[in-house]
Amino acid sequence: MVEQHYEYAIIGGGLAAAHAVEGIRAHDTDGSIVLVAREPYLPYERPLLSKKLWTGQKQLPDIYPHDRSYYESMGVQLLLGQNVASLDVQRKMLTLADGEEIGFGKLLLATGGQPRRLPVPGGELEGVSYFRYLSDYLRLREEAQEGSRAVVIGGGFIGSELAAALTLNKVEVTMLFPEQHLCARVFPAGLARAIDALYEARGIRLLAGDTAAAIGQQQGRYTVRTGSGQNLAADIVVAGIGIVPDVGLAQASGLAVSDGIDVDGQLCTSSPSVWAAGDVARFPYVALGERRRVEHWDNAVTMGHCAGENMAGAGRVYDHMPYFYSDLFEFGYEAVGDIDSQLDIFADWKQENDTGAIYYLKDGKVRGVMMCNLWDKVPLARELIRHGKTVAPADLRGAIA
Length: 401
Hints:
This protein has 10 helices and 26 strands. By secondary structure, the protein is of the alpha/beta class. The strands form 6 sheets. Strands 1, 2, 3, 4, 5, 6 and 19 form a 7-stranded mixed sheet that branches.
């Protein structure tokens, strides 16, 4: 027997879930809403966990886009710290881990992703941080004492940000990653070398081209054995090696799943009563002419809002071009589109103020733009990508920078 029924149900505790509430209420002020989240916290912004919380530019209350009173004013029933055990799409019913059944009219899956785990001996030791959640930040912040030693495994976005954050808090950091440079999948070689040098100048030890082979623990201390045979002593071990989209509920319920939950242009899944948004959704990226997932803040915000609107009948096509950003010590950037270091690259750099735009091209067309220490230029970059016409690299000089 179904214990409760809601017109709208949202599963997830991140930005896509939070902004879906706004989208629903923009078109339906009365329909009942329930939001079910695995974590015991209000929906929050993950980017701040590896960025401005560490510098003091933001405080913990700043991670919440809405406080509890907002959800009360929107008529949202919050079920926090609750796991959804199963989803029955045909019967339009959720079953929670405690057996409670919740019926729904329309459902949003904003389940995000789960951190990839290290497939090595010791990878599951208690205390190894797979940094993703607020609880991970709270624990790591407590452990990050001045003079302690940390091994950060992974040289992508999250690993690089955490290494910078820990270093700024006077932790001795060693980074271990299989690529030849930090953020090698997105940075062109010249920029990657410059970022490596920036990190080394800050005292971070870079072990490029190496991997974690095993992790041992004794009396609260860790030893990370690398693939090359080195043994690294550490008080803290952090692994930032990406996420896997959390498609378990969708897959078990028979929804179409590939690299994420497949949705159409209005973010509806293969069931007409279920939508998906955020890190977990694989959507038609209109400007790039392909389907993809985007694991960034702007996508979660705008896609969550659009999905909520469409659940309430708006019928909007999601054609937004999400941007992303990062802060690595004094180097910061914003980027939009396809940022892949394997594409053809043209850098328009101004040495006098160390700013520039990096253009990523395929078949002579701009697919992505990274703006380095250059701000408020994302709209211009989007227009260049949407333009979709063949350009000579020289014609891009001065287009943004």
